[in-house]
Amino acid sequence: MSRSERLFDLLQVLRRHRRPVSGRALADEIGVSLRTLYRDIASLQAQGATIEGEPGVGYVLRPGFLLPPLMFTPEEIEALVLGSRWVAGRADGRLAEAALSALARVSAVLPPDLREELEGSSLFIAPGAPIPADAIDPALLRKAIRTERKLRLSYSDANGAASERVVWPFALAFFDQVRLMIGWCELRSDFRSFRTDRIASAEMLEARYPTRRAELVQRWKQWKHAQPPREPGALPAAYAEEPTDAA
Amino acid sequence: MSRSERLFDLLQVLRRHRRPVSGRALADEIGVSLRTLYRDIASLQAQGATIEGEPGVGYVLRPGFLLPPLMFTPEEIEALVLGSRWVAGRADGRLAEAALSALARVSAVLPPDLREELEGSSLFIAPGAPIPADAIDPALLRKAIRTERKLRLSYSDANGAASERVVWPFALAFFDQVRLMIGWCELRSDFRSFRTDRIASAEMLEARYPTRRAELVQRWKQWKHAQPPREPGALPAAYAEEPTDAA
DNA sequence: GCCCATGCTGCCAAATTCCGGCAGCATCAT
DNA sequence: ATGATGCTGCCGGAATTTGGCAGCATGGGC
Q: Could you tell me the residue range of the domain that residue B144 belongs to?
């Protein structure tokens, strides 16, 4: 591969990683020595790319480089189509629709050969076991998450016990058969997960919750990491995140 | 100026002119000989640029090399991210990488607010049961499908019986735990499905198969529709497509 | 049909760049 | 302090690039 092609590649690799990447890692990924990688970075910077490198951390590409990315590769098209088909088949109606319309927008900017690739893609999502329908509109959950608004939930746990609570929803987790909404529960003052098909009703409140969503996600990850492991064999993997409202 | 920088430059120059420009003019503008310019054009084309040159006219950069700005609704962004995350987590390495790469490309041409939406999306794919690893490179299967080339397979069926055959692969079906390659089997003169994790080896042959892929897909759907239904409860849904080589 | 502008390719020898390794220094997080 | 990482200078051999030339192809204007 010639140097010039490599630079395009490097740019794309940098775009792909959003976290800082070490020069060593980049060098390996592109198949070139560390010394050469430093030279390549310098070349890109000389052409206006805002690549920031910090000692002890790695490189990040700041957006805004004057050169927009190259067109998708056929494999990337396949990935987009497959992903969208999964969403179209496994997510709720609104999201499914959105997946298809997003794909249509992508298609509109493709050169003819790639458009054909997209339309004729032969990667299919096989229909799986039916997913339990939600009583509420999942779009509402997503909207609450997006806008960081509180939700008042009526929820029935695995034992059928009903409860009502206000939560700060910050994530949706998609399992093969189940979707969980994850949030901070004001009632329990703790993180809780809720199967969306067990949410009997949800009302979006006026109040935004006081912590940024990204912050909540981060804290939740730490919290989750610190949780004691479950008894082995307790639950199948697909339910491993089941709400533990063992109060 | 090094060659690689020059290529970036040439790209910009081409983007600037929308009327055809002669090679001579481009060469002068960049300060390089005509011979070299031709080489540079060839390099860019090799990287996917759709630069059209007509004798007696000049060069035009057709859109489709660089990704134009894209606009999506927040919900469409969520769908794209979720789909890409599914591919990133559930498909083979190459495709997973391509999914992230595509997402990065989209991100780079999004207006800042939507980019934030994309990066902060809180829809996650939960890790599922591990997927049996393939003995062969799945990218090869996709490539054969894409280019409509025959494959020589070594395959072991559910009973461990090995066989060797030439197939015309035209689709990949993704189940929760299993991936099936679907093709026309020359050995059986019929449609067959193959679990990718049971393909011991695959070799792409020179020969392209004589029927268009879309045509095969269509025929297969009809064929499948006409198949007698299986005995109820015979196999879990995820394996419903298992090859039935009951010869 | 002729001619011209232009695209495009093969060849080659000289000039240039590129590459990897090494050694060393700077800077930041832990 | 220590380690991880970014970054630069230097060197010699390897690889690429470059420009010139010669020639062919193609399409439009005359």
A: 138-239
